[in-house]
Amino acid sequence: MGSCLAELGHRLTAAKRWSFSSKSSDPNSQSKSTNESLSRHDDPHQVCQIQDSPFYVFRASGQGHVDVVARLLNEDESRLNGKDAKGFTCLHHAATRARIKVIDLLLSRGADINVVDNEGNTPLHLASEKSKQEVVKHLLVNGADGNIRNNKQWAAIHVATLHNNADIIKELAQFPKLVDVNLGGLNGNTALHLAATYNFPEACKALLESGSNIKQTCSNGFFAIHLAAKNASSRALEQLLVEGDKLGYSHDQLLASNDREGNTPLHAAVNSGDLASVKVCLKYEARIDVKQNDKATAFHLAASQGTFSIVKAMFEQHKAEKPDDYLQILHSRDALEMTPLHRAAMFDHPQVVRYLVEEGSDVNAQDCEQRSPLLLAAVRCGVSSIRVLLSSSVNVCVKDSEHRNLLHFMVMYSGSVLTDAELDTICAVPPFSLNFSPFLIYRLL
């Protein structure tokens, strides 16, 4: 108990000394020259001041105290490239806070301008992230390497893009020998790929004006325009089309470009389910009948995806553009000989099924296995689509390549979800020439 009180008394005494020393009655004492010695070692009971810390050089660098930094470097030159817990050097701190004079001092003393922190970031990375345009220019003038990639595989141009900072992008691009605007980062993504992915139209514009290659693919085989469409980045998508046109790439060229799987930007936009991106493609006259590797058109994908507003927008524009042969898109076949109606029925999109039927789709068209939309709906238990198709002029007697008709599939997959009255209506349609009675099997279940 006595030892604890003694220790407490010692700490209180030390605290009082610190308080007294920090609140000097001399009003001039707080403005003493920074050249005065910052270390106190004579009194063993003297509390350590922040200025005595070996890390104070980092704080002084960030605060722009040139004289203090110079003094501390004179006392210990190893502090020049020393690092704090985050791996920041004095130069990182100065760059982050835009302390140009400190940067000049550090560089004059031989600081490594391309030194990296624990995350692999150089001072140029940090200046780009913090939007310190003057620092970015100053570092590049002094020879900073703008193509160094951090632990995430991003260079300064990628970092500026991820923050949608057009001014920093333009500044970096002023030094083409030090900064490659088409440098690939993670998965081969260039800055333009990132701007497209994250829907940054300002960054897209700045990059394309600075020499970014709109036709460069990433490691996954995507152009920037595909990534914009794929990620529902409608504003970036439109910016790419506008700026690409200025660079000599027509809208038709860009919208007809294929990725590794043969997808056009419209295919990608449909897959994203984003109506805004689809409308941008349609606005610039993307063709809905262009086929990908499996021969599916973008309209097939829309029918599969099932967003009615997208299906309707695509078909209405196609109908307006080709009033004489617009029905051809409804009858187009993919690699499995499926029409868009097959796709809609298979994935049970009743609203889309009804719309396609009303617009003239062939309800009895058969795919490569002789399955009609009705049979496919039955296979996938698409009861809602079955009911829509039954209300049309559908042939309920059609058989697939294995001689199975609707009732076979209803028994195997969907029989329990239709009413007896609905099944009775189906069975009343002659002729049902079967090797066995699926309806009887259903009744026995």
From TrEMBL:
Which InterPro entries does UniProt cross-reference here?
Ankyrin_rpt, Ankyrin_rpt-contain_sf
Q: Which SMART domains match?
A: ANK
Swiss-Prot/TrEMBL keywords: ANK repeat, Repeat
Region (Disordered), start-end ranges: 19-44
Superkingdom of the source species: Eukaryota
Q: Which Pfam families match?
A: Ank_2
Please verify whether the record's keywords include Protein biosynthesis. Answer: no
Comp. bias regions, Low complexity: 19-33
Q: Does the keyword Repeat apply?
A: yes
- Stretches forming ANK repeats: 86-118, 119-151, 187-219, 261-293, 336-368
Listed name of the protein: Uncharacterized protein
**What is the source species?**
Plectus sambesii
Lineage of the species this protein comes from: Eukaryota, Metazoa, Ecdysozoa, Nematoda, Chromadorea
